[in-house]
Amino acid sequence: MEAPAQDQPALALEPPPPPPPQPPLLSKNAQKRLLKQQRFEAKKAEKKAQVKEHKRREAERRRREWEETLEGAATEEERSRLIESRRELRRERMEKRSEERGQKLRRLEDARAGGQKVVIDLEFAHLMSANEINSLCQQIMYCYAMNGRYEYPCHLWLTGCGGEMGAQLRRIPGFDKWLVEKEDQSYIEALQDQKENLMYLTADSENVLDVLDQKKVYIIGGLVDRNRWKGLTMKKAEEQGIQTAKLPIGNYLKMSSSQVLTVNQVVEILLKFLETKDWKESFFHVIPQRKRCEADSIESRGEAEEEENVEDNQPEGNKECVEVPSPN
Predict the structure, then answer these.
(1) pLDDT in tens, 140-175
(2) Which one of 44, 146, 154, 156 has the minimum C-beta count within 10 Å?
C-alpha cells in the first residue's frame, strides 16, 4: 500500500526587483540648456572633423606638388639642389621652434620668480563626474599652453592636486615637467604666510575687481558645471575668511546667459589684462560671441570694421608711420 503523498511546501516567490530609478525631470529651461549644449558639442565635433580633413587634404596637395617639382627637374644636379633646399627649410623651422620654446621657458621661469600669482583650486573633484574631471584637466592643459604664449605669463599654482584629480593630471603627457607649482594640499595651507593677500574670484562677490594687484594671489575655482553649485566658492571663501572679488564683466558687456566662465577663459582674461591693462579688450578677446548679447556682438564687430575702414582710408605713407602706443 502506497504511503499518502505529503503536501510539498509551496516555493516562496521572490518579489520582483524594484524598477530602476528614473532620472529627475528637467525643467523647460534646463532642457533648453541641455539641448543647446548638445548642439554646441555636435557642432564642435563636426568642425574638428572638418579641420582634420582640411589638414589631410593640404598635406596631400603639398606632397603631390613636391613630387611634381622633383619630376620637373631637368637634371640630377637640379633635383639634388631642390632636395637640399627643402632640408634647409626644415632645419630653419626646427631651429625657430627650438628658439621659441627656449623663450617660452625663460618667460615661465621669470614668472615663477616674480609673476602675478594665480591659483587654480582643485578641491572640488568629489563634486564632479569622471567626464567633468576630464574636462577640467583639459582646461588646465589649455591654461598652461596659453600662459607660455603671453609676454607676461602668470605664476600658476595648482592646489588640491591629490586623489583622482592628481591621477588624471598625471596622465597628461609632460605634466611632470610643467613649470607650475603643484600642491596636494589646499591653497590655505600652501600659502598660509600670504593669507591676507588671497582673493577668490567668484561671480557671487559684491566686490568688483578694478585692477590686478601684484601682491594679491588670485584664486579660480576648478569646478565644471557651476550652475549646480551656485555660491559654493563664495561660501568657501567666507568660511576661510579670505577676500573675494568678481571680474568687471557687467561694466563692459552683457552676457546672454550666466556669467560663469571656464577656468581657461578666466586665466586668459587675466593674461590679456596683464598685457593690455584694458578689461574691455580682454573680455571681447576671450569671451565667445555665443555668450554675449547680440547688441554687444554687433558693437564689437562694428568697432572692428570701423578700425579697418580708418586704416584702409589712410594714405600709404601714413600707414607705415602709425605708432601703436605701448600699454601703460
Answers:
(1) 999 999 999 999 999 999 999 988 899 999 999 999
(2) 44
> In this structure, are residues 145 and 121 in contact, taking their beta carbons and an 8 Å threshold?
no
Amino acid type, 166:
G
pTM: 0.68
- Which residue(s) pair with 119 in the sheet? 157, 219
Q: What are the residues whose beta carbons fall under 8 Å from the beta carbon of 157, sequence distance 6 or more?
A: 117, 118, 119, 120, 180, 181, 183, 187, 190, 191, 217
Higher local confidence (pLDDT), 38 or 213: 213
- Cβ proximity of 161 and 122 under 8 Å: yes
Contact (CB, 8 A) for 156 and 120: yes
State CA 196 to chain mean position distance.
28
**What confidence score (pLDDT) does residue 220 get?**
96
| Predicted confidence (pLDDT) per residue in 202-214, tens digit | 989 999 999 999 9
Measured at the CA of 179, the angle between CA 173 and CA 180, to 5 degrees, comes to 100
CA 235 to chain centre: 24
The Cα–Cα gap between 87 and 232 comes to: 56
CA distance 121 to 246: 16
Q: What is the mean pLDDT of residues 296-305?
A: 48
Please identify which of the residues 110, 210, 213, 225 carries the catalytic annotation: 225
Q: CA 325 to CA 282: how far, in whole Å? A: 17
DSSP letter for each residue of 4-48:
PPPPPPPPPPPPPPPPPPPPPPPPHHHHHHHHHHHHHHHHHHHHH
- Say how many residues make up the chain: 328
| Cα 65 to Cα 74: distance, rounded to the nearest angstrom | 16
CA angle 52, 54, 59 (to 5 degrees): 95
Residues 24-42, mean pLDDT to the nearest whole number: 79
Query: Cell digits for 281?
Result: 579688450
Concerning whether 184 is annotated as a catalytic residue, the answer is no
